[in-house]
Amino acid sequence: MIPRVIALLLGMLLAQTAFAQEDVLDRDRYGLEETDGGFLRVDRESGLVSLCQNVNDAWRCAPVPDAQRALEDEIDELRSEVEKLSARNDELEAKILAISRAADEALNGISKEDVMPKTDAPSGALTQNDEEQIDRALDFTEKAMRRFFGLMKDLRDEFESSDQ
């Protein structure tokens, strides 16, 4: 029985020593600075700062917002948004280049003389060749406009879907 009591006392002594060491560590971990409205508690390990105030006869500590961390988070968000917008810009530039190439291919069959008005034709009278050229030009214009408005509709739909 006596060995059990000694073991129990020895265990209690060791536990009290461990708690005392933890208490010393906790006192070294936090620093207090007096302010007008209470105290600032600084955690020396994590760097977190809390404002401690006496409210209704009880001390309460609330974390102080970290402005630097908030700025870094906002910078990260903006950096991510810039990357997304750059990728979207590259995508749109590729679409514009494809439309430009299609327009160049469509214009290859039309010469400068076909587009320029003839001075020897009487005013007000169109020849069969003139009418065919006008029809080809109008067909090309119609196709180009349909492609353009189709692209604008796609862009508007994508923009509206990204806002939601």
| Terminal residue distance | 75 Å
In the residues, how many domains can be counted?
2
What is the tally of beta strands? Answer: 4
Q: Sheet bearing the most strands, described?
A: 4 strands, antiparallel
Helical residue percent? 55-70%
| Structural class by secondary-structure content | alpha+beta
Quote the beta fraction.
15-25%
Going across the biggest sheet, name each strand in turn: 1-2-3-4
Low-confidence stretches: none
Order of helices and strands: HEEEEHHH
Radius of gyration, in angstroms, nearest whole number: 40 Å
Anisotropy-based shape: rod-shaped
**Overall average residue pLDDT:** 81
Question: Can you describe this structure?
Answer:
The protein has 164 residues and is α+β, with helices and mostly antiparallel strands. It has helices spanning 2-29, 67-107, 112-115, 128-163, and strands at residues 30-35, 38-43, 49-55, 58-63. The chain folds into two domains: 29-64, no CATH class; 70-115 and 127-163. The chain has a four-stranded antiparallel β-sheet. The radius of gyration is 40 Å and the shape is rod-shaped.
In short:
It contains 4 helices and 4 strands, in the order αββββααα.
How would the blueprint of this fold be written?
Blueprint (H helix, E strand, L loop, with lengths): L1 H28 E6 L2 E6 L5 E7 L2 E6 L3 H41 L4 H4 L12 H36 L1
Antiparallel strand pairs: 1-2, 2-3, 3-4
Keywords: Coiled coil, Signal
Which key features would you list for this structure?
alpha+beta; 2 domains; 4 strands; rod-shaped
